[in-house]
Amino acid sequence: MRIDRVRLYELSLPLVHSFETSSHRKSGLTHILVELTDADGRVGWGEIASPTHPYFSADTVETAWGVATRYLAPALLSTEADSPAVLERAWARIRGHEFAKSGYSIAAWDLASRARGVALADALGGVRSEVVAGVSLGIEATVDELLEQVQRQVDAGYRRVKLKIAPGWDVEPVLAVRDAFPRLLLHVDANAAFLADEASFTIFERLDAAELTMFEQPFAARDFVGHARLQQRVSTPICLDESIVDVDDIHTMLRLDAGRVVNIKVSRMGGLTAAKLAHDAAVDGGIPAWCGGMHEFGIGRAANVAISSLPGFTLPSDVSGSDKYYAEDVIAPAVIANDGVVRVPNGPGIGHEVRDDWIRAHAARTHEQHRATQEATR
Q1: 324 catalytic, yes or no?
Q2: What pTM was computed for the model?
Q3: What is the pLDDT of residues 320-338, one digit of tens each?
Q4: pLDDT per residue as tens digits for the range 71-98
């Protein structure tokens, strides 16, 4: 693989329904789209789905833009490789900034798959033609409004619902949903909002009776010990999300029994190669995995669908239809869920056409670098 041109586009899309987590509420998202062109003129697309604010992680749109333009693009344009995994070694010495790396990784895998004429899912080793999707619901103003949102997703055919929780919005809304939907696959996500103290342990012990599929990331990202202490006190499996940045974190989780489910996010782990390695580690460790999301636009969402087709992703993944979040998307056709199930595309690459003209017309800022310019300045 030889990349001759890198283009970046910063694009914002409004959400059809505002979304609140333990840290903040948002009504739209801004992501960076990555367009890579090889020596033969073929194009691959990726998405840097970093948050706008440093609440989920240290990565933001601004930090990602700086790293993507100043470090990742030059590294890629001065490298040649025979596969995306080898190409990614071009930025191995850059520490952190997984979201920025992920956008380039997705684009490289999309480009390589298109060059081979195979679907991205097949290139990754996928085995499924369909993926069961779950949905994530934010904190609402009232319990009644939350119940209304859950009903809407159940009516749409989704089989798993994730509820965001935070101190003060925990036991009451969750038990209300469970009472109203006794057979629904349900789990909670705290986004590291709770302290690993006795008061929090008591909250999760009360939630333990709700027959949830998991407690996702109750405590701080690096608090493996706190999660292990909680796991000893509850029967509900703990799932780690923010804690899992690389494969070594999965090994730590398993060794300490700090979690019994893993959320593998392509964006958080630095791309498809890293996410595939995490999948393999989960399979080897005998724990279930699922693919989490960052409210990706269509490009990142399609990549999530592709990796969710791997055999170790045994739980519903955050790959709900694009229309759940966006009235208009950057790909055609958009990702569609029918009765809570998303078809895995079998066309080359991500299996969707990217609306490049529309992206260029709506981008807030763009950036372009060429191999020829890179070589001339050495």
Answers
A1: no
A2: 0.94
A3: 989 888 999 999 999 999 9
A4: 999 999 999 998 999 999 999 899 999 9
CA 244 to CA 262: how far, in whole Å?
8
Type of residue numbered 200: S
Catalytic residue flag (residue 265): yes
Q: Which of 26, 101, 162, 265 is catalytic?
A: 265
Asked if 125 and 109 touch (Cβ cutoff 8 Å), the reply is: no
Q: Which two tokens stand for residue 203?
A: 């909250």
What's the rounded Cα separation, in Å, for the pair 284 and 196?
29
Using only C-alpha atoms, the chain has a radius of gyration, in whole angstroms, of 20
pLDDT band at residue 373 using 50, 70 and 90 as cut-offs: confident
Tokens representing residue 181 in the block: 């939907």
Measuring CA to CA, which residue among 282, 281, 283, 302 is closest to residue 293?
302
Report the alpha-carbon distance of residue 103 to residue 11 in Å, rounded: 14
Structure tokens at 69: 């333009």
**What one-letter code names the amino acid at 211?**
E
Would you say 141 and 116 are in contact if contact means Cβ atoms under 8 Å apart?
Answer: no
CB 247 within 8 A of CB 281: yes
Cα–Cα distance for residue pair 143/150, rounded to 1 Å: 11
Peptide bond into 348 cis (omega under 30): no
H/E/C letters for each residue in the chain? Answer: CEEEEEEEEEEEEEEEEEEECCCCEEEEEEEEEEEEEECCCCEEEEEECCCCCCCCCCCCHHHHHHHHHHHHHHHHHCCECCCHHHHHHHHCCCCCCHHHHHHHHHHHHHHHHHHHCCEHHHHHCCCCCEEEECEEECCCCCHHHHHHHHHHHHHCCCCEEEEECECCECHHHHHHHHHHCCCCEEEEECCCCCCCCHHHHHHHHHHHHHCCCCEECCCCCCCHHHHHHHHHHCCCCEEECCCCCCHHHHHHHHHHCCCCEEEECHHHHCCHHHHHHHHHHHHHHCCCEEECCCCCCHHHHHHHHHHCCCCCECCCECCCCHHHCCCCCCEECCCCEECCEEECCCCCECCCEECHHHHHHHCCEEEEEEHHHHHHCC
Sheet with 130-132: strands ordered across? 130-132, 341-343, 337-338
The active-site residue, picked from 26, 162, 164, 324, is 164
